[in-house]
Amino acid sequence: MNHETFAINPTSEGFDREAFKKEILSNLKVLYRKTLDTAAKQEVFQAVSLAVKDLIVDRWIATQKAYQKKDPKFVYYLSMEFLMGRALGNNLINLCCYKEVAEVLNEMGLDINVIEDQEPDAALGNGGLGRLAACFIESLSTLNYPVYGCGIRYKYGMFKQEIRDGYQVEVPDNWLENGNPFEMKRPEYVQTVKFGGYVRIEWDNERQRNRFIHDGYDAVHAIPYDIPVVGYGNNMVNALRIWDAQPVQEFNLASFDKGDYLQAVEQENLAKNIVEVLYPNDNHYSGKELRLKQQYFFVSASVQLAIQKYKETHSDLHKLPEKVCFQLNDTHPTVTVPELMRILLDEEGMEWDEAWEITTKCCAYTNHTIMAEALEKWPVDLFMRLLPRIYQIVQEINRRFLIQVEEKYPNQYNKIRSMAILYEGQVRMANMAIVAGFSVNGVARLHTEILKKRELRDFYEMMPEKFNNKTNGITQRRFLLHGNPLLAQWVSEKIGTDAWITDLSFIKNLEKYADDPKAQKEFMDIKYRNKLRLAEYVKAHNHIDIDPNSIFDVQVKRLHEYKRQLLNILHVMYLYNQLKANPNMDFYPTTFIFGAKAAAGYKRAKETIKLINSVADTINNDPSINSKIKVVFIENYRVSNAEIIFAASDVSEQISTASKEASGTGNMKFMLNGAVTLGTMDGANVEIVEEVGSENAFIFGMSSEEVMAYEANGGYHPSEIYHNDMDIKKILDQLVDGTFSHGDREMFREIYSSFLSPSYGRADQYFILKDFQSYAEAQARVNKAYQDKSRWAKMAILNTAKSGKFTSDRTIEEYVRDIWHLEKVQVEL
Length: 829
Ligand SMILES: *Cc1c(COP(=O)(O)O)cnc(C)c1O
Description:
There is one protein chain. This protein is of the alpha/beta class. It folds into three domains: 1-70 and 93-120, no CATH class; 71-85 and 121-472 and 814-820, 3-Layer(aba) Sandwich (Rossmann fold); 513-701 and 768-805, 3-Layer(aba) Sandwich (Rossmann fold). The chain contains 32 helices and 25 strands. The strands form six sheets. Strands 1, 4, 7, 8, 11, 12, 13, 14, 18 and 19 form a ten-stranded mixed β-sheet that branches. Strands 22-21-20-23-24-25 form a six-stranded parallel β-sheet, sandwiched between helices. The longest helix is centred in the N-terminal third of the chain and has 30 residues, at 41-70. Bound molecules: pyridoxal-5'-phosphate. The site of pyridoxal-5'-phosphate has 12 residues, from helix 6, helix 23 and helix 24.
């Protein structure tokens, strides 16, 4: 990668170049017994990172001191996923010494980009939900708020995707192989987490009440590792605290002698299995026992430690809500509710009502999806067996809640059916989170409205005060300052300040340049250089030449039917047919770029990847077409290559079936980088269009209302479209006539059948054919618009200029104002 200039990035006072250089050399010596000329690049990365860690730790200690002095309230952001990406570059950016370190490395004959490329992504997440958690903790640090990110230190993160013969192959992501230079093991905070066993009830004479004693369980030790989360230029460092599991009892011959052999082996396996791997499903729940173990493991450890920390300096647990808020990132950490109850009841000896009062003031829930298959529902027998005491508490929460429902809605069984926590043999996690949380938020305005009007209507009617919206956001430090240094520099020059780095509302001052021919040229020159950078990446990875003068039309996100990558590739097939039939058709050359991982067990998603690669293969090798269209599938889409992709994009494909994408955050990263949205009125696209104006986006397709109306009527009849639209008939037939499969008529038959006679579910569940013509028209408008260079440049500049709302800094200030009520803490170095 080639960063030729750097964004304005104020030098932190006191950065000592010579000392830094010395420390790198010393680290190489101490860690590897090497000098610069003999060290491998990975070793240099480790040595540089350790020198950076030294800078971080000074600020980390200072932050701890400030916390001790001020005793602030903390938010515990509980999340199964943190999709952090690489740390080195962002730490340097936020320490305000990226430029200096780049120069120091340069003097040492090293290229900072090459060193950054040595770092594996910390991919402890699937997609948007995990990346949101990463943006949030970065914004919290930058805005001077106290936070612990709480999660799991998976041994294997999101799998690496390889494409072999057009098919996705999953390769384990051994991200800790070379060690993580930034993490700190904190064995002094070890917690014990208990699974299985049974609950004994004993009469406690002293207290005159029952005591619940958990016995016969398997235990595991939870050991936290802290990863620093550096705020931008403010000396604040918070921690992402991720938990590793260790057997309580080291496996040894002594236990063998005692006859504990099997128990020792079981505990070893329990510990090993829990943190082994991230489940690679996005927006899809898999009811695996191990998944519930993971959830309780990190939640129990996090909540126990939070209480322990609170009790070090406070005696009255009734005031816990003044110092602690647990934010539940989706339902995955919902066992926080009964776990906190358990601690207050069984360990602190509280009565139910006082424990409930505290718990409900401490927990808040964020809903991330309305997709039915993503709703977590645990079978009661599994739940009860794995977490017997927790289950009792859930039963009691449910019992008391249903009494309230019955009081408010006498004899209305439909209310119980929709709102009960325990129903038909299942534990419904969303219902528990809503009943116990004091706040329930959606992640974009449209999504929150759909929750209130439809999915959670009964809850909204019963407890409207809990519901609120927090439209998602992204951090501009990573997705502009680090990912697009050329544009970052230009923004600062144009608006005459780099204040946008911590206050993105400043970026609106670009608006006055939208019509300025000189600014337009500069902007498009930067886009061109970023397209060259991506073209180099594609050449190196895909061995395909792409033309940086062509339109870069990009869809990168997890592969999911509702995100409709299939609509995109069917349209590419349609264009191919048009250009074949009419070679002189007015058409500006376009490169269609895809990047997407499919969940390992998601068959239709994997077939779609194969289709994209097959169409790419045919088109890229057809000399009559390949100067007009190219199709590229970027392997192993992840945060580090995402940064390069957003910077180089002209068109942002956000084409989910309306009502299905809760928010999207990829859409915001594209916008910030001056790509124009081609999308449906779904999720945060609605708010993007509101900010930028409908004349600066390309909107198509059914509204969420229309989609939901069809769904209420059992769908629609795609076969009518197939029989009446000859263009659509042709592309569907091509799925089964071998055009894109070297004559193989079976390869894409499942996809074909999904439109006309599916083996399960509704025909064309995601309304691809229904939206096709509208999409094709929008694509044609894009193609036409791009040919007017000045008009396009204006649209692109306006997208960047109007992206201010979509910083995660704005989102975090809203969470603080409405939910967390945190105070800012200043850190002096
Ligand atoms: C932002 C991001 C996502 C989320 O993308 P959507 O288009 O909102 O689904 C997924 N993966 C990575 C690597 C991201 O950076």
